[in-house]
Amino acid sequence: MLTACSDSGTATSPVAPASFVEAIAPGAPVVKEGDLAALSLEADPKILRSHTFSDGKVFDYVEYQGNVIDGDAILGTVQGLEAQFVAYEDELKSAKAQGIKTQGAMTNRCVGGIYFGACVSNWQGVRWPKPYGQSWTPVYYEPLSNLSSQGQQAVLSAMTDIQNATFQHILFFQSSSASNRIYFTQNSDAPGVTGGCFSPIGLQDGRQQLNLDIAGCQDKGRAIHEILHALGMMHEQSRPDRDNYITINNSNLTPLGVQNIGFKYWDRDMTEHTPFDFGSIMMYPQTLNDPQQKFIYNSSQPLYFLNVSLPGTVNPGQRDGLSASDIATLNMRYQ
Ligand SMILES: [Zn+2]
Fold first, then answer.
1. What is the Cα–Cα distance from 152 to 124, expressed in whole angstroms?
2. Whole-angstrom Cα distance, residue 255 to residue 114?
3. pLDDT > 70 in the chain, percent
4. CA dist list (Å): 276 to 17, 148, 240, 280
5. Rounded CA separation 258/113 (Å)
6. pTM value?
């Protein structure tokens, strides 16, 4: 899975085939057992449902009167969800036919997608492994010869920042032979993806591409953003609690924009440990210059509206460096 990032404020939005973009596999259940216990105290009949996919993944959900619910929120109809199950099976077949790796990366797949506006994230499935007995996690990358000298400098600075922020619990090693490794490009060779900044989410079990287009992606902040994707981090505006803080301008989003900006991920692990952070390097800016209408139809209209007032010191969409909560999340996952 690739997540495309047109958050540079430039016109470098990538074009990605549907099978590559934000394909999120079922992992964690939408409603946990503890939630069900609470629900059962209520009078209305709610039914726990479970669906098992052909790849063995299980998706649990709660049905109430033909709708899929999470707490007091209606996520969509059961019929709509079942259509997404069928679509997921089709994507599994398609990925297999194209030779796209589905292990690991596809543990994050959107279930419900546009219907439900919610996805399931199982970051553990895409975590880079920490060798037994070691206190640090190695992340391998091929020599940066595909990048301009500016791009190489950006990547090396980004890696240094990440290593320092995690107190060396994440260490980057150059290798052309490690079984899992990132290769950096500035001219995408992913099928149908012509440019932009993008990365898979987390470890993909093999050789995975991270693209930093020479137009707008080759600075330290954008390199950090994409490397964090490769380490398994999602966009901040995709958090399940984001509607408390922003209102997505849905009418301005293209289908690709919905996938990159509109979806929410049920990443409870992250949500329960760090507050929503407008200053995260994984947060999109409020506005985007997107004349090619890859993500939004009208660049003069925002991606989202603010539901809260922000101090002047907070700059949503900053790409200067890791925020305190970015660092906390990284350390929680890779300690
Ligand atoms: Zn991104």
1. 29
2. 9
3. 66
4. 30, 35, 10, 9
5. 9
6. 0.71
Instruction: Name the one residue in this structure whose structure tokens are 């063995």.
Output: 56
**In angstroms, rounded to a whole number, what is the distance separating the alpha carbons of residues 115 and 108?**
17
pLDDT of residue 11: 33
- pLDDT tens-digit readout, 91-114: 667 656 655 444 333 333 444 333
- pLDDT > 90: what percent of the chain? 37
Q: What share of the chain is helix, strand, coil (3-state, %, to 5)?
A: 30, 20, 50
Given 22, 42, 91, 226, the catalytic residue? 226
H helix and E strand count, the chain: 8, 14
Cross-strand pairs, 2: 21, 200
Confidence of residue 137 (pLDDT cuts 50, 70, 90): very high
For residue 234, how far is its CA from the centre of ligand 1 (angstroms)? 7
* Helices 149-165 & 324-334 angle (0-180, nearest 10): 70
- CA 41 to ligand 1 center in whole angstroms: 40
Give yes or no: 236 in active site. Answer: no
Please name the fold of domain 1-335: Collagenase (Catalytic Domain) (3.40.390)
DSSP code at position 47 = E
DSSP state at residue 331: H
> Domain ranges in the chain?
1-335
Residue 79, both tokens:
């019929």
Torsion of CA 312, 279, 188, 171, to 10 degrees: 140
Q: How many CA atoms lie within 13 A of 242 on its CB side?
A: 28
Please answer whether residues 96 and 102 qualify as being in contact, where contact means their C-beta atoms are separated by less than 8 angstroms: yes
Contact 142, 184 (CB under 8 A): yes
Interhelix angle 149-165/220-230, rounded to 10 degrees, is 60
Q: How many angstroms is it from 39 CA to the middle of ligand 1?
A: 35
State the distance from the centre of ligand 1 to the C-alpha of 2, rounded, in angstroms. 9
Antiparallel, parallel or unpaired: β 2-5 and 197-200: antiparallel
Instruction: Count the neighbouring beta carbons within 10 Å of the beta carbon of residue 120.
Output: 25
Task: Please tell me the distance between residue 198's alpha carbon and the centre of ligand 1 in angstroms.
Answer: 7
